[in-house]
Amino acid sequence: MAFMADLKIDFEMPSNAGELYPRLQESIAKNKGTMTGDMESGSFEIPTPFGPVKGNYQINGSAGSVIVTEKPVFLADSLIEGTLRDALAKYGAN
Fold first, then answer.
1. How far apart are CA 73 and CA 5, in angstroms?
2. Fewest Cβ atoms closer than 10 Å to its Cβ: which of 22, 27, 30, 47?
3. Is residue 39's pLDDT more than 60?
């Protein structure tokens, strides 16, 4: 069961932003998800045991944002935000 969510997460791009997109895309694909678009904007769908997390992202220079458009009821916003920030730190590291 999923519902529409207005979860917006703003973040700063890591210093090696050019390497971040392909790393995230590969990681999402390994977990049976999809990420389409490019370094400026796109969308994603990530499976979870409770249902998919879907959304869009936008990058403008060193600032980025993710808007979650659909998520399982059982996943707290804080868990989704923490997972995103962990991924940015992991895949944005040199």
1. 10
2. 30
3. yes
